[in-house]
Write a structure and sequence with these properties.
Layout (H helix, E strand, L loop, with lengths): L1 H19 L4 H15 L5 H5 L4 H19 L2 H11 L7 H16 L2 H20 L3 H14 L7 H12 L6 H22 L14 H8 L3 H19 L4 H14 L5 H7 L2 H19 L2 H10 L7 H15 L2 H9 L3 H8 L4 H14 L7 H8 L7 H29 L4
Helix pairs in contact: 1-2, 1-15, 1-16, 2-15, 4-9, 4-13, 4-14, 4-15, 5-6, 5-11, 6-7, 6-8, 6-10, 7-8, 7-21, 8-10, 8-21, 8-22, 10-20, 12-13, 15-18, 16-19, 17-18, 17-20, 17-22, 18-20, 20-22, 21-22
Length: about 425
């Protein structure tokens, strides 16, 4: 029992440090795993290292690499500008359009953070010129990023589906994605109109020559890049090819055709996030071996009942995610507890609980303490108040812990949506 408490304590310390420090929690987690595994649990270094998720590492690296190349050669930017031209100057449609553009980009592979990085600068600049409130645009972009985050082709979706498969809940990739997408879309659109978005529909804005030119045509490099990405996605869906291996092949093709700077693309792969996810997974493996995961599960079970678990777990994951990484820390720590949690509660729908964790963790990610919220603040035009946007996004992120808890309780607990 002491060893179990020690491993749970190490996880708690790692999560706490991730909230208040710039130290990569993955690096710290590996160090903790080594100390506890070798010097307290009597394991070998090889036993500890066996917890490193090799398959996940390769998949994340391959997928982020090919979409880094697509961003680097302007293909994804072309897609975003083409979508913006569809609004034809209607100010009210702009935030809604940017929600779906960000969700679409995040879904096809770049993920929520990369999708936000691509869209936020353009969206915030357009908001300043068209008279859209900064908070409204930032909220819609951030929620769009969250909506697409659990696509089976996005990094966070790959992480979540890998964990679910490991605990015997594989084969639910579509439900995982659509549950998260549906909640984000509902909350974002509802909030948009409740917060006064309907007033924007009577206004118009003018498209600049640069935007019109950027949206006009896809050149050969962009078409080839889109073709390679489409072939990768089709091969995964139809031929059941491993997405990571297909991504490495696609990245190699783009490099061979000189459609992207390969060295620069490798530098821009989000190595920090990949190390974070893989490192925390190593520590979670130690928790399993020391019965710390059982202890962690029993602690969670004391907070909820079978009927309230979806709402409670969404609130808890959301509260921690306000200050910590959703994909790198929170979900890798919470998702493995699902089987044990259901056993202790005496029943429950595992996919509903997983969806509550996923939704609760992602709804708060527009917080300025998250990368997505920070990207929106960084992109704010010079003549607007960044501190005001920071405060509003902070209030939004904290309020989403409650909204996430209520929505997940109703959808996955009361209505029992699969």
């Amino acid at each position: 029992m002491n060893l179990a408490w020690l491993s749970v304590g190490a996880l708690a310390v790692a999560v706490l440090i991730s909230c208040v420090s710039e130290l990569n929690v993955g690096v710290l987690s590996i160090a903790f795993a080594w100390i506890i595994g070798v010097y307290f649990a009597g394991l070998t270094v090889g036993n500890v290292a066996s917890g490193f998720p090799v398959s996940l590492f390769l998949t994340l690296t391959g997928v982020t690499l090919i979409f880094t190349q697509a961003s680097q050669n302007g293909t994804l930017d072309k897609l975003a500008h083409r979508a913006m031209a569809i609004c034809r100057g209607n100010v009210g449609l702009l935030p809604i359009m940017f929600f779906f553009v960000t969700a679409g980009l995040a879904s096809i592979g770049p993920g929520n953070i990369a999708g936000s990085a691509l869209v936020a600068p353009m969206a915030m600049a357009v908001a300043g010129r068209a008279g859209v409130p900064m908070f409204t645009m930032a909220m819609m972009v951030g929620m769009g990023a969250g909506a697409g985050s659990l696509s089976p082709f996005a990094p966070t979706g790959i992480i979540v589906n890998g964990i679910l498969a490991k605990i015997g809940l594989g084969g639910h990739t579509l439900a995982t994605y659509l549950n998260n997408l549906g909640v984000h879309a509902f909350v974002a659109i509802a909030a948009y109109f409740i917060l006064g978005g309907w007033k924007l529909f009577g206004k118009t804005y003018s498209v600049t020559d640069a935007e019109r030119e950027s949206a006009a045509t896809f050149e050969q490099p962009h078409l080839i890049t889109l073709g390679v990405i489409a072939a990768m996605i089709v091969s995964v869906i139809v031929l059941k090819v491993d997405v990571g291996m297909a991504a490495f092949l696609g990245a190699s093709v783009l490099t061979a055709l000189k459609l992207a700077d390969h060295k620069e693309a490798i530098k821009r792969v989000p190595w920090s996030v990949i190390i974070m996810v893989c490192g925390v997974t190593v520590l979670i493996a130690i928790l399993e071996k020391t019965e710390g995961l059982d202890l962690f599960t029993s602690l969670l079970a004391k907070l909820a009942t079978e009927k309230t678990v979806t709402g409670v777990i969404a609130f808890v994951t959301g509260l921690i995610s306000v200050y910590s990484s959703t994909s790198g820390v929170v979900l890798p720590a919470f998702l493995p507890t699902i089987p044990g949690l259901i056993e202790r509660l005496g029943g429950g729908n595992p996919i509903a609980i997983a969806s509550a964790m996923n939704v609760g963790g992602h709804l708060v990610d527009v917080s300025p303490l998250s990368t997505i919220g920070a990207l929106c603040i960084a992109a704010i035009p010079p003549n607007h108040d960044a501190r005001d946007l920071f405060n509003k996004l902070m209030a939004w992120g904290l309020s989403m812990t409650v909204v996430g808890g209520v929505v997940c309780y109703l959808l996955f607990g009361v209505l029992q949506i699969p």
